[in-house]
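Lecture 7 notes. Example A: sequence first, then its structure tokens.
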Amino acid sequence: MKKWTVGAIVSLRSRGTQHVDKIVCSHEYLSCALKIAHSLAKQLSTVEQERAPHTEKSNTNNSPPMIEASDKSWSEYIYISCMTKEAVEKDMKDESSTHNSNNDDKLDPGELHNLSQQLSTLLENDNNQNSIDYLDVRGAILNEGAVDGRSLSNDGKLEIRSLGWEGDELLGHNPTKRRSLQSSTNLDSLSQVQSPSMVSTSVEPLKLLGLPTALCNLISNTIDSVDGDAHDNGGTYGLISEVRDDLKLMIDSPNLYLQDVDLAKAVNVGLQFGGSLYGREAELQTLKECYQRSISSECEVAMICGTSGIGKSKLSQEFARSVNEDGGSIYLSGRFDKLESQPLHAISSAFDKYCAWVTAEDQSTAEKVSTALKENMGDEMACLVTVMPNLANILGDDFNLNPISKNDDTAVDAQKRIRYLFCQFVDVISRCHEEPLILFLDDCQWIDNASVALLNQILMMSGSAIKDHRFFFFGACRDDEMSESHPLNIMLTSMNCFGTKTTKIQLTSMSKDAVNEMVSTELSLLPRITRSLANILHHKTKGSPLFVKQVMMELYKQRLLYPSLSRRRWVWETNKILDMKIPDNVATFITNTFDRLSFEVVSALVVLSCFGASADISLIEVLEKEIEQPLIAPLDDAVAHSVLGKRNGKFYFMHDKLQEAAYSKMKPEERCLHHNRYGLALDLLHGGSGESEFRCWNKAMNMSDFFAAHSFFEHGISYLRLRREHWNEHYDLSLELFNLAAKCALMNAEHDSLKMLTDQIMHHARCFEDKFQAISVTIPLLSFSGNVPAAVELIKTTLSSLDEELPSAVTPTVIKKHLDNTKKQLALLSDDTLLSYLAMVDPSKIFAVELLVKLYGSLTLIGERATQRIIPLKVIQISLTYGMSPHSPTAFAQYGSYLALIEDEFEEGYRYVKFALSLMKKIPSRAHDSTTMFWSTHTRIHIEPMQSSIECYLDAYKAAMKSGNTYAVSSSSVYNNCCLWSGKELNAVVDSMKDTMKESKYHKNFVALTLMLPMLRVALRLIGQSDAPAPQQDNLTNAFGETFNEGNNAGKYASLLHTMYFAKLSEALIFRELNEAEDAAEKYFSVDRLVGLPPVMFFGKFYSGLVSFWVARETDDNKRKESNKWIKRGVECKDKMEKLSVSASTWNFENKLYLLQAEEQFCSRNFETAETLYDAAILSSKMHKFVNEEALANELAGHFYLETGRRNKSVHYFSRAFDKYNEWGAVAKASALTEYF
């Protein structure tokens, strides 16, 4: 072998390559070296098989030689078979020569003796060496003299290592440090001598030469086989046959298994899948045979069947490639789409693509087709142009494209005419080409009846045609979604009766070997290495190709499968992948994957899904401008996530399951609206008349697509404006259209448009009643912008016009009088009576109730507590007098909240809240459900377990979004704040807050934005992101340019200031900032008396009480009055919490009460009682699942023990607080605690 090595290097150097390192890394040298190594491995594996365990054979002349490691280098006994230069020249001339590059496969162990003698003579004859072609290697053997009579050592592992050493030496590296170890045959002694450091560095010189990583790893894994250490996914070799197989793969597929992975591309582009087919050889062969029969004599069709994602489309693509390589064909393909309502779309699009192709690529054939069509079909061809626009390019400019009269007698109806013309068209193009015509239709489970009829007629025609009329049809379908009565099944059954055979090719899950082939190919790793990963993937996906790809993509995204720069190949985290929770089916997996995409990306995918499997990028660009929604950039992001592909000017879903997942993000009742919306946007570009909007606006409103609906209305209004006197000539229509458009403008935050619309209504309204809806949408516009006092004034003025004025002076006596009167009236009526109460019919009273309900919310913001309390009482009295209005359920919910949270009548209040929800379901309209649910939840979170009851705010949000109610953002805002203070995981809370902020900003809801900002700041600081960019709370500008600040808005925005100060005092308490806590608490108490009924006032009572006791303890002894003030405040908060714990819910308030009591006893220096109460607070917090308050109670207990001189005991509580803050997600706060333990 040494002589061959020198000879090969000299030969390559004579060709111009001077540096030995470059020669060893060259393709020519590596190719020869691999052949030599493979020949040796093959010889050794033959011995391995013959000397397998439990098999005893005599050492006869027919037995293979017995091999073991020698005390000498194997290189002295390895003979390499090469051709002489004369033989090479003869071989090149004689194609029938028995010498070829694969001759090593024909070496028989019985021929080794003769061959070794020939090689010895050849190599020892210096005179012949110049005639040897060292680069035409035919094989290699171990000399019989070196191996004869010796048995395999210990399962052959020494031989594997020796083979690795020779490979190492063959590639120019001489591992002399190890050579002395070769003489030992005792594995135990070897393992003692050999050091791990030697193993890990065994092939480093080869890597430095630039040899392929896979080859270096192979040598390393053979050398390290004795120890069995796994330095690589795949580990060391256990059998020589494994080495043989890996070498064979490197020889046969060097581009796949020998070349290093392009790490730069892998890192920048990520995991990319090719177009190969795996494990479908038998099915592909069946399809080919069916095709050959069909184009020769018989009429036969094939149907590829299987579940979604099983590889039907991929099989069809591989078939098309194979047929094209075997001689070519005219391959047409189309795809049925579940969303496509146009009949014949899949078939017509397939032939339309043919028309475009033949015109661009084969002009002579296009002219031949044009001539034949005109001769056979004449002017009737114009009908086909309507379904195949590119046909016009074939027919030419001189062809009359005006369709023939519909009264023509040559066809009974339009469908029959189209079918007849299609058949003629197929007949013409199949005769104009020498190649067979193949039509493939995908997703045939969604085939329409017109296409079934057309396909049946085409197949019947081709079956009766002459021999040179060659046509083959095959399709793919999800047969699990097709019943026996499916139109396609009926057609195929009937065709069998007429002699057209159907071959069904059923695809099932891939085998483990097929999955391994797929993983191995896509990662460019040897199958032996990827088998462990492939087995895991097969187990988790049941062998579904799509599922395997999706899971691999998810592994890449989660960094469980990634390109390693140090190993220069793909690696994976086996244990983490094993522990990964994956749904049982690919549909659920894809849906879950979508949930991890950004809102913008998912929204863009939803839009794209409305156009089917693909859409032109130019169309999406136009649509993006018309609907004013980002599309192109988010779709490009989806391409980067491998959800979409981008090719030939189109965005397309990588699989129909992905399209279905995107489409499923729309509610079924909203899908029609989305189609109408996008269709309208495109229609407007082409000068639409506006009539379609009149047909669609009510459906759009009912389906909650306010963007589409507003487009309808705006276009309808523009249509009306063509008639200058439309308010006089079409008053009712104009009023309805302007009112609906105003509602949509409010939901879409188009405030300028809203103001214009309401001004028109107020100007042209013929009576006060006609102004109701304009006033109704103006109120939330004013509130959103922060001008709540103006909204309140508008409501009061309107109520006065409706003869429903509120008392000018609302005193406690007035409130009590109204409350007693309401209670007496309700006491006379059972719930069943109230649920069956007559409906309110007086429009003025209905509108008055609506205004009063809105006034209740507005007064909550500005702090008119007395007036706010009388409103639900007045609404109930109106309802009992005039009947139940759509807003009456909300009034009962507000009444229940008033009884429970103001009068402390929790049982009675909760009863009316539940009654409000029952009454809501009795009201036919769903427009105001969200308002009722919103106010009901204020009470429910006090009485029901908070962690579950706050989800009702989400229900209110969803109902508001569906109906277009303005409480959507308010519900989401309160929900987020409750999640923050009830201990929900902080990172999820922050994400939800940010989403709500975006929505608030989009809708220009200044109030909701202001309520959210302080809480978001606290949450960001808790999770350690306080340095992240965030708007400042103290200086905000609303939609009208007005500035919000603390100084001049105490009365105007009491609720907003209340929220802001609560956020500041709670933040200061948690981060132990005494001065800031005292200042914020002082301001909090100053506005607390102004606030009406904040939804989560108990959070403020709890935290302000804790701050009060803390400030009291830290106040100097000489300021006794100041200290007593704070203690009094703390006691008031504690007493409120005690009422809530006793009357409302032990679950929600017991732990808070214990902690306030503990702090009170700390202030009173009753340390023993305080200890008991701290522990009780901790235990109660844990039992009732308030992890944030468990953390806080542990921390305050720690400070208690620290300040009372028991530092060692404080460490225990601080340590537990640290753990619980981390569990909550408050990592920054947890980190700050480390100074205490």
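Example B, a different protein, same format:
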Amino acid sequence: MSTTLPLFWHLSSARKQERIDASVKLVGALEHFQAQFVPPPPKDGSDATSEDEEEGGEGGDEQDEDDDVEEEEEEKGDGLDVYNAQDVSYSIRRLVRGLASPRESSRLGFAVALTELLSRITTVTCSQIITLILDSSKPQGSMTGQEERDVLFARLFGLTAVIRSGLLVRTTPLSTSGSTAPAVSTLSSYQTLLENLIALGEKKSWLKESAWWAIGLASDALKASSVDWKDDAFEATVKTIYTGENAKAWSPEKVALTVKLQEAWPEHAWKETLAPTFKHAPLVHTGNYAALARIMKDLSVDSDEEEDERAPAKGKQHQGGSWKPQVHFVWNLLLDEVLSSENAYASFPEFFRILVDESLFSAASSPERKFWGFQIFQKALPRVGEADVPMLFTKNFMRSWINHLSNSDRYLHKAAKQVANDIQVAVKKNPTLGFTFILQLTGVHGSQQFDRLTKTKTVETILTSMTQDGIQSYIEYLLKQVNDEHPHTSDVQALNARRAWIVDQLAALVRNGAIPKDDRWVQTILDWFVVHGLFSIKKNDKSSSLALHNAPSPVFSDELRKLCRERLLSSLAELTTHTSLVKIDDKTSKVAAVASDGEFWVSKVLASIEKLEKDTKHVSLLAEIDDDDEDEVVLRSRARELIGRLKHITDERREAARGTGLLLAATLLNRYCAADEEESDDNDALESCIDGASRMFPEEESTASKKKKDKKQNKLVATAAASRSGPDLTDAEDDVPEPVDILVDTVIGFLEEATAYMRAVANQVFSLLSESVRESTIDLILAQLERRAPDELLEEGEDHEMAGEGEGNTEGEDEEENEEDGDEDEEEEEEVVEDDEEIDVEEDPELRRKIEEALRVNGIQAATGESDDESDEELMDDDQMMAIDEQLAAVFRAQANEKRLGKGVDAQREATHYKNRVLDLLDTFIKKQPTSPLIPRLILPLVDLIVNAGTDEKQLSDKATGILRSRIGKSKDTASSVDGEQVSGILREIHSRARKASTGDIVTTLAQCSVYLSRALLHAQVQQPVLDAYRESLVDFVTRKASRLNTAFFHEFIRKHANVSWELRDTLLELSGKAVNGYRQSQVFQLIQVLLSQASATTGRTEEVLPFMSDLSQSVQKAVQEACEAETLSAGHVKQVLKLALSAARQSKKFAQPPKELHDAWQPSSWETLGATLAASDRFKSSTGLPVLCKQIAHLTGQDGESSGKAKGAKKRKADAVEGTEDVESPKKAKRKVKKTSA
């Protein structure tokens, strides 16, 4: 027994795995002991009397609770020691007693071990174990509440262990008994277990569900068994539960057991058994749902409806006891039974409506019952088929779900949110359910604005998980709702609202980047927008596009048509930035703005428009072209012809041709969408695009027509450039502009538009045209970044307005006629002013206060309209009137200035946004053409943008800084074929601005730009301008105290261009003696140290190293000696300089071929003298480390020279010593040196 005792302790562990391991070890050990146990030979009549012993054991249950029975007598009475090893019998008793232990998880661990042990051994009977459990779990009158709960739980767990172990219905006899051995399980033991479980549930309501769940386990075990008393046990179960005082007492537990029993014994006369509570024999029959609903709400079947709904609201306990958050286990059985395909008498829609929707989700239901309802929905969701899913979204459920989901303060918000998550998970597992869920969420019981109403993304998330066929079905479902379901109704406003919602939903499908795009349904949406935004349907066409299948009735309003056009363009804006996988030349690549076949989405829309224009039988264009307007027809025809021709260009200009085609198509489409708008600015844009594209990709034509086109185009471009760039860019020159400039000018015009469509097209077109950009194109773009004053922007806007108003005036008007009509015009203007004053009823409180103050100063009170005495005031003379006029004029003048200032701020803000878009073009150009020789031209304008940015232009400045640092400064590519003179000038200007920069960030940006420009010049074999620029900056940095430069400005250049920066070595040494102060002097030596660290990278310059080292040695000594005499370098600076010299001395050894060269270059004796000077200096005598550094330099540079003189004729010694031992002559001397230094 000593081997099993330690295992019982771990059965109470809080860790599940540890409890299981202890159970496995315990049961394994007990099986081993039982296998070795040899039972005593049975005595005569022992088998016959064993049953009597068992009966005697059962009779012991009837003794008084206060009787104390000795443990030894109990062990003898239970009969376990007869056929079991001592360890086994002891373990059984201890496991049973341990079920009542309140310690940690002992009840779980002991119950598992007991169940497993009873299933393994065949030497105990069911009655023995039941008797032992009942005896050890008797409640005593002196027990506390906790102790009573412990023994009741012990009884429940013990009886459940008997059932789960199979001992209750075991048919095998005792393994150690003879042929006359009693049965292991009997009917009486089954009845005893059943009665005790029922009594346990009646004793404590909170144990009822668990006790009846155990009874259900017993019925399942009985059904699966083959005991000969099976039918008798069934009859006893029915008699105990359904007869007598329990006949009318129904509860969810009884319903659960009835479902199990009906499935196990369907031949029983269930109709008589269930009467009068239920009318039909099958419990899940549709006729029984009303009674079931009342039982499942845990209420009396006979209670009235008012009491039913009022009881939970008052917080009263139900018949079954206190409320529990976990839904009853009977719902699992009912759902499985109702959803079973074999039960034709059951109806899941009716079941869910009556038992859940109208019961748990009714308007008067408590939050606790609704919480149950949400859990039942979650249980039913994975069980129902696709056809029954809509039945779950009933009216009351949807109302409660949306209400609790829409506000986080709601009581059941978390439960409602979990339901939404389960729906999303279900769609991910089965995407075909997505369309069904969408229909319910946006259908009759839901809301079309479900996501907005609930502040979630449920519908959006479902759409992202749907299949392409599901999305297509959803689109068809939306389009079917366009027409009014009730044609005779007059609620036009509701119909228009529903149509607007449909338009938004279709556009949202395209704009949602998480939804995989498929050409089929995207084309369907675009065609629908085209049909209802640009055309009027005359007749349905079932064979054509889905949009023509049903003509809208009533027809779309002008607002809806405009909304369709707007959503068409916004959808195309999203598709223009979307990338698709396209197969080009047996290679798959990602291409933007195209469908899977490689054609632009804009071109597909134009093809649909062209097809519809030809179908005059079914549709007609809303903005019909007049017969007199032949130019418009020719213009559109030329545009389509050019687009078609550009598609066939496949040479090196293919990208530019695609960009030009996209620009033409986008401009033409925008012209269609703006054809019926009063304000249309793209009249000249399309013609400019056509002429620019024709010149950029010409075809054979006559010289006369070509000159005519060029002349016309020059005029258009000059006009457009003048309106954007001012008079500076429109000189009276007859130079023919580049075709790409014409196209980019149109792109810039697109950026001025407020629509996302124009901006998206502009960026994509410029990306494709970037390889064709010329120098003049860059100038055109950079001109847009020039800073203008707000007044200038405002005046320009006013000039455009005046020009627009003046366009309607004809030149042939008669001046005399104007003079005759002058008086009438003035009268009309006065009337208009008066009308305007009457209309403008909104007053400014601040303006009114100022006017009243001006009147009050002059002794006049403001009229209030409350008294007639105000009219009796004295009249004012002329002087008083003039004084008031001056003050009122000042008030009105201040008000006008405020309004003008507000307009100026708005104009400046718009200009800032516009420049941001222009910067996107530059960023695209640098990204697409990293080696372009035009990139250096961008640097100075971007620097100007950063330096001159105002407080409200921080975003603009940050974006320009990002372009210079990330795109240009960190670029690994080098601009090729640059103009050396031009780039040299830019480099000089960059250095000039760096010397006067206002902040360190600007200096850092300029340093990166300088390195980029230097790399470009060096790549073009232009070196001198680079050296000159850095040499001038070094002089400024060292000799001018107010210089804004820093060492970081030079570090990057020295590191990346070591071979070129080596040319600055003499300049640095020279400047070290001209520094404006000691700090700058130390910084010069830091730069020299960086230069020396890159000396190994200088190819073919090794012969120049030692001479430079000699000069460096002299410069350092001179600087240190000056520091000893004057306060130039501090002790810290001197230490850094000496460390530099020591590092340089060590590096010199790599380049000194004869060792004597090192000695000659560094002159060790001079360093020893310097060390002595430092030791004797009043400023540095306390810094004992400085002379030591000088001695180390002297020793390092002098030892090889001395050793080489002594090595003549002697045995050759090793030339180079290890770096760590360079400073020593012998180990003993080194040791003394260390001690002296540390002292």
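Note on Example B: The chain has 56 helices and four strands. The longest helix spans residues 878-928.
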